[in-house]
Amino acid sequence: MERGNKGAMLRDDEKSGKEKPQGNGLESYRHLIELQKQMIELSQHHEQSRRECEALRDAVARELAEQFRERQSVGRRLRTSAIKLLKQSPGALARQLFS
Q: What does pTM read for this prediction?
């Protein structure tokens, strides 16, 4: 009866896709080392990509800010200057206008 159970257990293992390690076990160890090397390489690549993405994001933000400053119209700059002048005291305004 036990033989039948062992046969059933072997078939269950085969069905579940489990494989027994072949050879002396060094192949499994080598495979693990190779996987670890690949994980380290992927991690380094991910970190480099993250830094490049961050640098690109900063460059785009700087470019957009520069374009925004350039788009300010002359009229807006004149209006801003006029508001600053009008906020000054009348004596200081007279000195600036007539100097």
A: 0.45
